[in-house]
Specification:
Oligomer: heterodimer
Shape of chain A: globular
Subcellular location (chain B): Cell membrane
Largest sheet of chain B: none
Largest interface: A-B, 28 and 25 residues
Helix content of chain A: 25-40%
CATH superfamily of the domain at 61-208 and 236-248 in chain B: MetI-like
Protein name (chain B): ABC transporter permease
Low-confidence stretches of chain A: 1-20
Membrane topology (chain B): Multi-pass membrane protein
Family (chain B): Belongs to the binding-protein-dependent transport system permease family.
Mean pLDDT of chain B: 89
CATH superfamily of the domain at 2-99 and 177-277 in chain A: P-loop containing nucleotide triphosphate hydrolases
Mean pLDDT of chain A: 85
Order of helices and strands of chain B: HHHHHHHHHHH
Number of helices of chain B: 11
Number of strands of chain B: 0
Pfam families (chain B): BPD_transp_1 (PF00528)
CATH architecture of the domain at 61-208 and 236-248 in chain B: Orthogonal Bundle
Strand content of chain A: 15-25%
CATH class of the domain at 2-99 and 177-277 in chain A: Alpha Beta
Number of helices of chain A: 9
Radius of gyration of chain B: 23 Å
Amino acid sequence: MTVPTSHRSLGRAAGDDDGTTRSTMLDVQGLQKTYYGSGQAVEAIRDLTFTVDAGELVCVVGPSGAGKTTLLRCVAGLLPPTAGEVVLEDTVISEPPAGMAVVFQEYGRSLFPWMTVAQNVERPLKEKRLPKARRRELVGEALEAVGLADVPTSYPWQLSGGMQQRVAIARAIAYEPHILLMDEPFAAVDAQTRADLEDLVRALWQRLGVTVLFVTHDIDESVYLGQRVLVLSGRPTEILANVDVDLPADRDQLTTRSAPEFTRLRGEIYELVQRAKRGERPSPADPSH
Amino acid sequence: MSVRHALRTVVLALTLPVVLVAAWWFATADSTSFYFPPLAEIVETFQPTWLEDPVASSRIVTEALPSLGRLTVGYLLALVAGVALGVAIGSSAKLRAFTEPVLEFFRAVPPPVLIPILMLFAGIGTQMKILVIMWGCIWPILLNTVEGVRGLDEVLRDTARCYRMRRTSMLFHMIIRGASPQIVTGARQALSIAIILMVISEMFAANNGLGFTIVQFQRSFAIPEMWSGIILLGLLGVALSLIFRAVEWPVLAWYRGYRQAQRGGN
């Protein structure tokens, strides 16, 4: 089911007085990013406006070069936007905020190679000044949750790619973030590992109730994981469509992926991405279709 | 297996020195040359020259110890200053563009030629010698640290920022650790420079020190004693490099494994 949302009508649920609606976790308003370099301005993101409710799992897909990583870096507070703002839990972001954890695509480059697995997971907790007993507890739980309880004293480079990305995920969840940003985290692992890690992310999300913004270029992955998929246009990026994923909450690689609804959503998003590739842009009056 | 391996390593490391010493021994055994006395004679003079009783007044304490003290102080000062400046310069592209030509210039100036100049304002005492050693040692450390800090992975930097690493942990757990392979390379180069400058700084104006003593022997034609001093210097160099390795080994344990894994030899 496609909800033809304009990028302005994804209103904030916060403050709804019936108390049952979820509050807004992330509110991206009119985000625009232009890179200035060698006398030439490159507009990467033109106008992005969307919200993510607390506890949601939202995927972002778009054609390659659609500024997905730029978007994520802006949301993470690593890159200042040219215009617009990113609001996380009612605070405008100007630097990486406390309640956020990020899992990068390049697992081999985001783990500290001079620290063991356990030290990698513990480092951010030390930065939070958590007491030692609590740190040990969180590190143990996180490694257990990603199935790496047996390798705390190994170094990341002693592990396979999939296991390294698990360490990065363990580090992120041990941090107890309110929102977890994932930037094409499984793009560099093999297909089987990838399926396992997707299930891991779904399971952790359901168990921990953390809000997840998952950026990917893989259409199947976005449908399989997300409750909602934001489809980006090509550069300069705008939101082309917001697609609700009406699949049961319990998903597994076999039945979910062979469900007719999965196929339909996959086709729909595929079509949108193709249109984005051809340069189609949302019109202000009819934003998604 | 590991005992055999260790044995092999020791045998490998000792073979060449043994061969060289034997060659020297036999080549000079019947030497009548004044300047190349038999090695046996040099070895004989070693103990009375450097280790006469009581030890407290032997030359190893009165001459070698002051030299080693100056070397240690100068080297450690250079290490601290080199890493500190290197981190600052390596972290800022602007500062780098601003300072790099000057740094290359200073590095190219051989430290011994600065001794007469340094003597003008630092005198001829310990201070001047420490300054000379420090001046010579700082460049390889500084320039390697700059390279190491500059080469830190962007994703790693982003990760550290995302997890809100504080300034001090950023410095010690991220920047210095990440640049440690290059810092160690610079420190190793600096160590041999330090030994050279320790000796040279004592040849100009000094009243004690290894270099001073060796030059004294030379000038008074105490040739076997001079040779024994040169051997002592060599032994000192070996000892210092062993100490260096003992420190380096655990510090870079991660890096050896990391490199090996990257080469696909996991």
